[in-house]
Amino acid sequence: MTTVKAPARERTQATGLTGAIKSRLQQLLAFASLVVIYAFFSIVSPFFFSYGNFIAILFSTVVIGTLAIGTTFVIISAGIDLSIGTGMALCAVMAGVFMVNMHLPLGLGVPLAILFGGLMGLVNGINVAILRIPPFIATLAMMLVAEGLALVLSHSTPIYFSDVAGYTDLSTGNLIPNVPNAVLILLVVAIIAGVLLTKSVLGRYTYSIGSNEEATALSGIDVRKWKIAIYAFAGLFTGLAGVMISARLGSAQPATGMGYELQAIAAVVIGGTSLSGGKGSIIGTLIGALIISVLNNGLQIMSIPQEWQNVILGGVILVAVYTDRIRKKEA
What angle do CA 240, 286, 126 make, to 5 degrees? Predict the structure, then answer.
C-alpha cells in the first residue's frame, strides 16, 4: 500500500499553525501565572489589592519592561545583551551631560541620550557580527565599559535635573489623571515594537536569523548587516530606559543599573521567548516584566527580606529556563 505524503507547502503551513498555537498557549500560560500570583498576594496582604498599588506596579514595570522589549529582539535572534543595565546608567548620565552640563534643551537632550544607547548597541552589533566575538563576551565587555564611563563622566557623583524644566514630567507627570506618563510611554513603545517585530522586515529577519542563521545567509540575506541593525535597535530601548529612570529619580545615578540586565532577560524568558532564538513576542515580554514587578511588589509588602526576594526570583528564572528547554525538546 502506497503512502501519500502531504505537499511540502501543506506540511509547512501545518507546522507554522502548530507553532502559532504553541506560542499563544505559552502567552496564555504566562498570563495565567500572572493572574495567580496577583490573586495570591491580594489574598495574603490587605494592602496589595488597591488601585494605588496597581499603578505602582505598572510604574515599577516601566524600566524593566523597556529594557526587556529591546532585549526581546536580541534574544529572538539567538543573541544576548548583558550591557543593558550599566548601559542604561550610562545613558542616564549622558542625559545629564547633555542637558545639565551642556545646557542643551529638553527636545534635543532626550533624543541624544536615546541615540547614545543606539550607538552602544551599534558597537555591540559590530563586535558580534563583524569581529565574530561571542555575544556573551562582547556585551560583557560593553557592560564593564559602560559602568566605568558612567562613573568617569559623572565624576562618581549624581547629576541632578532640578534645573531642566519638564524633565521629571516625562516620567512622573500625568497626561491622564492618576496614570504616570512613564506608563503611557511604555505602552506606546511596546505597541511600536510589537508592530515592527511582527510586520516589518526587521522583525522577519530577526526571527529568521534566530531560527536558522546559516539558512538565512544562504538565502541571500546579509546576516551581518541585520545583526548590527538588531543590536542597534535594541540599544535605543536602553537609551530610553536611561531617560525614564533618571526622569523618575530626578537625577542620573552612575552606580545604578547593575542587576537590571538580569531582570530584563528574566522577563523575556518568563514571557516565552526562547533563549535558543527564533521564538518570542512583545506581549509575552510585557507579561514577564509584570510578573517580576508583581513578585517584587508583593514580597516587599509582605516584608520579605531582600535576600529572600532574590532567592525567589532566581527560582522563577530557573523554572522559566527549564520550561523553555522542555518546549525546545518537544519541538
Answer: 50
**Sequence-separated (6 or more) residues with CB below 8 Å from residue 284:** 26, 27, 30, 271, 272, 273
**Three-state DSSP class for residue 191:** helix
Cβ-based burial of 245 (10 A; exposed 0-12, middle 13-18, buried ≥19)? buried
Cell numbers given for 18? 502548530
Distance of alpha carbon 296 from alpha carbon 284, whole angstroms: 19
Answer for the pair 18, 24: CB distance below 8 angstroms, yes or no. no
The pLDDT, as a whole number, for residue 15 is 45
Euclidean distance between CA atoms 145 and 65, whole angstroms: 23
Terminal Cα distance for the chain, rounded: 30
Alpha helices in 133-177 (DSSP H): 135-154, 169-172
Query: Could you give the C-alpha distances from 217 to 78, 223, 225, 234, in angstroms and in order?
Result: 15, 6, 11, 22
* pLDDT (tens digit per residue) in 201-229: 999 999 999 999 999 999 999 999 999 99
CA-wise closest residue to 30 among 265, 277, 283:
283
For residue 176, report the phi and psi dihedrals to the nearest 5 degrees: -110, 130
What type of residue sits at position 124?
A: N
Q: What are phi and psi of 83, to 5 degrees?
A: -95, 0
Confidence of residue 5 (pLDDT cuts 50, 70, 90): very low
Q: 188 pairs with which residues across the strands?
A: none
Which pLDDT tens digit goes with each residue over 266-305?
999 989 898 889 999 999 999 999 999 999 999 999 988 8
DSSP 188: H
Give the span between the Cα atoms of 241 and 213, in whole angstroms. Answer: 29
Name the average pLDDT for the chain.
Answer: 90
* Tens-digit pLDDT profile for residues 231-272: 999 999 999 999 999 999 999 999 888 889 989 999 999 898
